[in-house]
């Protein structure tokens, strides 16, 4: 992350001298090694500890320079990155092109079992390393100290976007010596550096790194992430002033947030997408009309109003509207139309019994029930059973393709790219394609778009691909989440910003009171 | 009455033995410490008691309070497991039987507990308490129906049969004792061990109960072990009397022998202390007052256990434990080196 | 008694072996792939997955897994690690104090409040206080712990500002609200147990004797009546202490206490067998000890109770 | 080594004009039972003077223990209820007294030995502790000191190895020892009034004599009034000054000990005396009063003893005889007290003799 | 005193005397602890109140349609979370269903789970507790260590695996949930029972029964059981309420009753989120659960009192 957003608000409020300390809600990270962190809790922290080759411009969601000052490609397949020369790690180690080569090779080494390894799967030489046929990826080369070359197996225009992701952060050489020790206090190259070790389940504290080579350093002197196990509790703690920022207040709090916080809250649209998937490997759902009918029978706005206090944006897209690539008006079947739905369903002979799947304990019960009520009322479905399962079991069912009805899943963008919003979920055989959707036309369009060098044309192609999905409806789009951020009096509300990937940019927060 | 023991032949000599007790021992450990206890000694509650109870016979047991009578009774019932010794019921080893067999034998031996109240289940009505023996031993089910039989029993011991539905706590001490008696009688056992069965009864009811016991014995040839402190009562009911002191039998003989020619000094002291129901005799009797404190049952005196309080004690008493045998002129067995009839015997009432 | 205690301590061995085996088996039997769950709905490459499965012996048959686990403990004192690489021993040393403190504070609160309330309820039988305890118990039972905890945070933490809302940063004070929330139901039950047992023993003869000795009512009740009625209370407190260790999931989660209960729950969800087994072993030791203490207490409370 | 003990006939410690130590007037106690209200005490009267020994005799179940409990104020209420009457201690009515004031009297001034020693002792407290408690609470003694006193008391009532056994629990003692512990507890504070409810039933005669001597000593030393409830007429003859004979909740006869034994003025007393087994008796049947005591829920009209009385007439069945003077200092509640007193009463009926040695019918003769 | 010597002879047969008394007191004839208990229960107003309440809840569980005509599953999101009104007595829930009928229909699952589990654990606890406390020794060791282990095995883990074994992929019904709860909830009660058995097993009256030749079963049944049941009854009554809550926890963890089941437990746990905005969502199920617990508790008290012959009532 990063960007000039913080600068815009600089004059709005008088910050404390030196930047002050800000504390924020977080959940206990699973891992604090860039290549291994796949969830928000860890990535958010890593985001401040590390800076990748590329950063995202928060205003436009476009890539902007990070460690790399500039980059260049002819064919979207071979990319050359020119690195800035004064980047160092917090421990003083200099960052060169070789740093990235080493890091990337380390991440994909199966022995290191880094979970994000497969983000590299379109790098040339990746498979060889994974298969044990090679030590290093051919596709990543340090041309000289400050020139890095990346070669991909096929054209891939969103590469700069992708490189903003956690998995591509550089790691210092100390990391390889003892990765476990490193994880307790990662040494990065970001705006902030660890202050002490990771206090598991309690907090992670970072101090501003004053030698940061980037353009707009962090404002607060110190950031403390406090680990909470219950969001409600965090909410009360912000309310009582013990905590400065909670970036994901419980949705049902929207009704009282004004009385609880007055002005001290803000709403952000994000790329976090919720959908009802349909197991296309089951016969009942192979008829596209059934899928359309199911979609049309859902009154998204009503559910959002009743259950989320209006805090989600009804989805008529697959690509988050926060990205400029999202198409408009392409979704014919996302509007509530019970009569049409009923008719269609009747004609298509949709199933009269449904089993709905969702994972338990994550707060999905109510809206899933509401959806099921609407299906029952609008489509004449007689029997609905629910399967709420532990997440591990739930995924196992998916892997085994034993899901027999609509299922809830979500997707949020690790990096802001329309490609990432679609390809992993809908292209044939993709890793997260739980619906088992396959459409050649769609696959081709995505590939073409990935190869397209002109960003605008690529964007158009993505939008086209999205339209196919909306027509085929392998999943029923439900909504894009809206995050409610609440904060204490100690920070300036205008300085708080959450990006589409749901990271709140603490480095831009202005602390007004010590 | 003459001082010499009547040499009358033992009327029970030809009767079969019902209960043959041999060298019964029970020591209770004394411990110290709260959680981690260590054993620092043992109360020698019963320390080698032997006797033979025959059919139709009543053996009275008297003795100082705390000398082990109740413990003996419990041992005989196998409510405590003895440390040594044997008990034979009609020739059968009572100490080794188990399970159903034990239960069958227990039907034949009944006990009336010294403590009337705690031995009654507070949540059972008197009717249920007395009916319990019949329920436990269905083969004994009375012809006239359990309930009627229970009422009869209540009546027998002088309780109002209408109180059949009452609970133990609603009775007076003496009434509770009679509930225990009625329960003990219910099964018509062969042996009844009575641990102070009449101590809480007024003399009139006591008379009723003793007459009842007497009648039962005459009719069915029951045997009793009758533990009591009231020496008149013991004399009245017993054929033979055993005198216990500190876990051992001090003297064992027929009722006449013991009461008329007591040979053990302790027996003599005991008899001399019997209060007589006649105020005019107040202070006129001569009473042997035992000197010294009762000895510690955990650490009894060497030799004869009574020697520390005995006026006849000599050196031999300290070194050699006297056996329970008859000596010299006396016919009964007495565990005293100096066993001899004493001039001072129980004064007769006027 | 000493021998009894030693014998009881020896029972640790089979109990631990059986229960760890059992728990291990249960975790093993859980459906789904823990490594899969670790990654969430994001894709994980097969290579990574395999490495991890191998690293955590997940591909071995059950008994091999268990044997490797035991072997690790025996040879290297290695209780395994979590899937994110933290040693179980470290996890436990960090979390045990939290749970233990919580349990202890709860235990103190509930024992004191429960017994006192029980005594008062018995003394003022059918009067206001008795009814109050009854109604309070009913309410506490009817309200889920979640709600009670939340209300406490709201009232004592936020509105009155008496106690911290969450976390363990303020020392013992931070444990008071969670302990209250945990104790609420048990206190009521305890009060009722004490009350009814006390009423029973107050009608016994020896209590009358104490009165006849001229003792004050309060002394009669607390010194003579109470002791005889404490066996159920002690049993219950013991059992409750046991379930507290394991059952503090909800409270630990809400009050953000990094304790064992919450960890066990998370590890179960993540199917981290070693963690679960490690913690459960600790629990078992704890329960056997607690129950031993309770049994020893029986003997102290009532000398008639003898263990060979 | 023997010692003969002679006790002189001391006159009861009554000085005219003195308020009696304890006075029970027209006491009525009833119990609620399922079968109705049981009148355990109906109209009980007696007085006790300092230094005096009053023996209460009576049928088992006639209300002796209930009387004692009522005086101590430890009757279980409910189901018990004091329906009327007063109990005066040195002139103050105990029944209307403040609870706190009454508590002060209990144990210290008025003490009681319970009939059932095992259930009356706290099973979970060491006996030494239970005795020491008296000293600690009433005398404010320290733990150690009180314990030493307790051991001393145990020795006084003849418990061997008292020092070692003070820490034992009631169930570890024999019946007689428990009884003596009760006694030790009751006399610990040298009370003014001691109610001894069958204090020596579980004691052998030598210990009994020792205990009675101890009580006597206390009595002379502290001018204690002793209410001795017992069935042992030998003991009564030995120690009592006055005797009250109770029957179904009332005093039937009250007089000097010599009067009662010599010239009983009530048929019930006569019956009682004739039931005593004698030490020189060798066997044969004992004489018992025939019949059962009346049910307390359903008392007979007139004299409660009438169904069992051999002298009963119609008058006895209708009219309740009041306690009246038959001779000097001799009260009796019988219409024919004078005749009975003089030994001239005539037998009028043979009362139904249930409960007197009825032989069980169901037993087959043993093999 | 010679004239009295004759008084021993008996004249009348005993039976006549018995008969006359028998007739007079016919109604008090058969009495056992149970019969007595029943008699005094009938007179106890608290018993009546609790019995009526329980009957009410039971009929609610069995015939919910007697109490409401509204279909609890007829939900309109448009009227979500309305406050109580004349139309919706208890307001509406999040889904916009009539909360009154939801609460009424919730009785079935909740009471069923509460009942089955309370009774199931009670039976197990009483049996195991009796046996462990009475026999002591290795029997006790085995049972007690078993309780330790069950205590130690986190019930979520057990529930997950067990329910899975019970074909968890089908909807989890009352039976399965009750089963799992019983399996994991019996130890506390068992320990309570064992404790009170241990404290009566040394009583003299037990010894007396043994002397009469009573076997272990008889002694346990007739002597120990009635004298040791008190604490367990006391606990079991409150326990019913706890179970209703535990059922909700299971659901929360994904192993309990599943949607679209209606139960008080589910309502309670859902309501937490709306504590401040729509307190009625919490209030009504709490009242119902509370009343149920109250009824059980009062009934337990009444039964205990009735079973205690010394009771002052
Ligand atoms: N709780 C009660 N309910 C009903 N009746 C009772 C209750 N307690 C005592 N009684 C009755 O009151 C009467 C008097 O009892 P009390 O204990 O005073 O007799 P007692 O004279 O001491 O007899 P004993 O010599 O046998 O001890 C008895 O008939 C008894 O049954
Ligand atoms: N459970 C026990 N533990 C320890 N000592 C015991 C136990 N039971 C009895 N004793 C001791 O054993 C001795 C004998 O007791 P026992 O009850 O047999 O006496 P007893 O002859 O019946 O006396 P009494 O006539 O007073 O009833 C006593 O010193 C007593 O303290
Ligand atoms: Mg005895
Ligand atoms: Mg009495
Ligand atoms: Ni004569």
TrEMBL record, chain B:
Gene3D superfamilies assigned to the protein according to its UniProt record, in alphabetical order: P-loop containing nucleotide triphosphate hydrolases
Record carries keyword Phosphoprotein: no
Record CDD domains: ABC_NikE_OppD_transporters
Domain of life: Bacteria
Membrane-crossing residue ranges in chain numbering: none
Organism (species): Nesterenkonia halotolerans
Listed GO MF terms: ATP binding
UniProt lineage: Bacteria, Bacillati, Actinomycetota, Actinomycetes, Micrococcales
Ranges of residues in domain ABC transporter: 19-271
Family from the record: Belongs to the ABC transporter superfamily.
Pfam (any one): ABC_tran
Keyword Protein biosynthesis belongs to the record: no
Keywords: ATP-binding, Nucleotide-binding, Transport
Protein known as: Oligopeptide/dipeptide ABC transporter ATP-binding protein
UniProtKB/TrEMBL annotation, chain C:
Subcellular location: Cell membrane
Keyword Kinase listed: no
Domain of life: Bacteria
InterPro entries: BPD_transp_1_N, MetI-like, MetI-like_sf
Transmembrane regions listed in the UniProt entry: 12-30, 100-123, 135-160, 172-194, 233-255, 275-301
Record keywords, A-Z: Cell membrane, Membrane, Transmembrane, Transmembrane helix, Transport
Residue stretches making up the ABC transmembrane type-1 domain: 96-298
Residues in coiled coil: none
Main location: membrane
Entries under Pfam families matching the protein: BPD_transp_1, BPD_transp_1_N
SUPFAM superfamilies: MetI-like
Record's bilayer topology term: Multi-pass membrane protein
Family under the similarity heading: Belongs to the binding-protein-dependent transport system permease family.
PANTHER family: DIPEPTIDE TRANSPORT SYSTEM PERMEASE PROTEIN DPPB-RELATED (PTHR43163), DIPEPTIDE-TRANSPORT INTEGRAL MEMBRANE PROTEIN ABC TRANSPORTER DPPB-RELATED (PTHR43163:SF7)
Name by which UniProt lists this protein: ABC-type dipeptide/oligopeptide/nickel transport system permease component
TrEMBL record, chain D:
Organism superkingdom: Bacteria
Keyword annotations: ATP-binding, Cell membrane, Membrane, Nucleotide-binding, Transport
Signal peptide: none
Subcellular location: Cell membrane
Coiled coil: none
Segments for region (Disordered): 1-20, 345-367
Main location: membrane
Topology with respect to the bilayer: Peripheral membrane protein
Residues in ABC transporter domain copies: 22-273
UniProt keyword Disulfide bond present: no
CDD domains (alphabetical): ABC_NikE_OppD_transporters (cd03257)
GO MF annotation terms: ATP binding
Record field: compositional bias (Polar residues): 1-11, 345-355
Family: Belongs to the ABC transporter superfamily.
Annotated protein name in UniProt: Oligopeptide/dipeptide ABC transporter ATP-binding protein
From TrEMBL, chain E:
Pfam families hit by this protein: BPD_transp_1 (PF00528), OppC_N (PF12911)
Residue stretches spanning the membrane: 46-67, 111-137, 149-166, 195-220, 232-261, 281-303
Keyword Transmembrane helix found: yes
Record's compositionally biased regions (Basic and acidic residues): 1-13
Region (Disordered) location: 1-23
The entry's keywords: Cell membrane, Membrane, Transmembrane, Transmembrane helix, Transport
Ranges of residues in domain ABC transmembrane type-1: 111-300
Keyword Transferase: no
InterPro entries: BP-dependent_transpt_permease, MetI-like, MetI-like_sf, OppC_N
Domain of life where this protein originates: Bacteria
Principal location: membrane
Family membership: Belongs to the binding-protein-dependent transport system permease family.
Name of the featured protein: Peptide/nickel transport system permease protein/oligopeptide transport system permease protein
Organism expressing this protein natively: Nesterenkonia halotolerans
